[in-house]
Structure to design on (90 residues):
């Protein structure tokens, strides 16, 4: 069960990625992530702004914009940790 943080946009327009293995985290975090990704997605506005960085989460092949998700404290901490680990996608 991998959770991936994806950053798109930015000045050079390259994607950065960091991921975490959720099996190494508490069950409450795993349940929260599964619940978030089982909900019907909200429409994503198509107001693309050049060079604007945007963050997304990917879980089980489903990608959702980070701003749409309600984060519990454990997920917020994990995302902060992942944000510090972002590296360019190969």
């Amino acid at each position: 069960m991998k959770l991936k943080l994806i950053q798109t946009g930015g000045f050079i327009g390259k994607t950065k990625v960091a991921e975490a293995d959720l099996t190494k985290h508490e069950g409450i975090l795993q349940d929260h992530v599964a619940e978030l990704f089982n909900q019907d997605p909200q429409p994503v506005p198509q107001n693309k702004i050049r060079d604007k960085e945007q963050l997304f989460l990917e879980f089980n092949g489903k990608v959702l914009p980070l701003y749409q998700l309600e984060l519990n404290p454990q997920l917020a901490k994990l995302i902060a940790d992942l944000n510090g680990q972002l590296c360019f996608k190969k």
